[in-house]
């Protein structure tokens, strides 16, 4: 594939893709600047395929991941998992920040917004309180998908984050998230359960914008299906007084 050839050329030190060796005079020539460099190029047989492996590229380090499985379904699933993992690493590098996972951010936001809502004396309090309640959908869904008791675990999680925001001595509880393998709460920062900050911020923004768009719809148009009743039926004749 041409896109693969471009990646190999860039990795090998800015090598150029040459479609033809002919020059302007009609003769064949080749410039040394078109070439890249690598320590080793070999052909290796892996499973039923012959692969060309390039090792020790000069321009930048590169790696290929070879996936093998019992059938195409397993290989496709592994491919999706590896792709998702690499995208998560890419997001972390782009945003240069991570946040604890396992419902930690959502629970902390929910507690903070509930406390903030009680400081308002207008109808905005209701909107903020409902937004705070909506934040708990993520941790509840995580617990339900793990076949655990969502009511108990989410309540414990909220208690930890309420303590972290109200008691100075328990500030460290702000890293507490869900441990779905053991069905309890834990410090997800120490456990290494982290998420890219960029992905978390964008998901919250997009979900909020979607909810606002739906709430802006103040009218609904219904199209009723035309009736297929027979005008000469007995029921219509009695209703119209023809009988």
**Roughly how many Å is the radius of gyration?**
31 Å
**Element pattern in H and E:** HEEHEHHHHEEHEHH
Helix percent reads 40-55%
Chain-averaged pLDDT: 83
How is the biggest beta sheet arranged?
A: 2 strands, antiparallel
How far is it from the N-terminal to the C-terminal residue, by CA?
Answer: 79 Å
Based on DSSP secondary structure assignment, what is the total number of beta strands? 6
Oligomer: single chain
Key terms:
alpha+beta; two-stranded antiparallel sheet; single chain; 9 helices; 243 residues; 6 strands
Q: Can you lay out the helices and strands and say which pair or pack?
A:
Blueprint: H1 2-11, E1 38-46, E2 49-57, H2 72-95, E3 98-100, H3 104-117, H4 124-134, H5 137-145, H6 150-166, E4 176-179, E5 184-187, H7 188-191, E6 194-196, H8 197-215, H9 234-239
Antiparallel strand pairs: 1-2, 3-6, 4-5
Helix pairs in contact: 3-4, 3-6, 5-6
Q: How would you portray this structure in words?
A:
- This protein is extended.
- It is 47% helix and 13% strand.
- The protein has a two-stranded antiparallel ribbon with strand order 1-2. A two-stranded antiparallel ribbon has the order 3-6. Strands 4-5 form a two-stranded antiparallel ribbon.
- It has 9 helices and 6 strands; from the N terminus they run αββαβααααββαβαα.
- With 243 residues, it is an alpha+beta fold.
- Helix 3 runs antiparallel to helix 4 (124-134) and helix 3 (104-117) crosses helix 6 (150-166).
In short:
This protein has 243 residues and is an alpha+beta fold. The protein is built from nine helices and six strands; from the N terminus they run αββαβααααββαβαα.
């Amino acid at each position: 594939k041409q896109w693969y050839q471009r990646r190999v050329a860039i990795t090998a030190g800015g090598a150029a893709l040459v479609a033809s060796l002919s020059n302007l005079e009609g003769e064949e020539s080749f410039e040394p600047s078109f070439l890249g460099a690598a320590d080793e190029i070999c052909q290796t047989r892996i499973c039923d395929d012959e692969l060309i492996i390039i090792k020790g590229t000069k321009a930048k380090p590169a790696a290929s991941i070879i996936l093998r499985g019992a059938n195409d379904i397993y290989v496709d699933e592994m491919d999706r998992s590896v792709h998702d993992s690499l995208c998560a690493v890419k997001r972390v590098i782009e945003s240069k920040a991570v946040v604890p996972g396992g419902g930690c951010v959502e629970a902390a936001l929910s507690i903070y917004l509930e406390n903030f809502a009680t400081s308002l004396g207008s109808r905005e309090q209701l909107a903020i309180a409902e937004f705070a309640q909506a934040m708990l959908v993520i941790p509840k869904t995580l617990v339900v998908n793990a076949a655990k008791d969502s009511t108990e675990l989410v309540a414990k999680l909220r208690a930890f984050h309420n303590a972290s925001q109200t008691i100075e001595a328990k500030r460290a509880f702000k890293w507490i998230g869900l441990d779905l393998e053991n069905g309890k709460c834990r410090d997800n920062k120490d456990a290494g359960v982290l998420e890219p900050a960029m992905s978390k911020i964008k998901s919250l923004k997009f979900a909020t914008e979607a909810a606002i768009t739906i709430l802006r719809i103040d009218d609904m148009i219904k199209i009723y299906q035309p009736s297929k009743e027979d005008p000469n039926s007995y029921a219509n004749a009695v209703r119209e007084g023809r009988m």
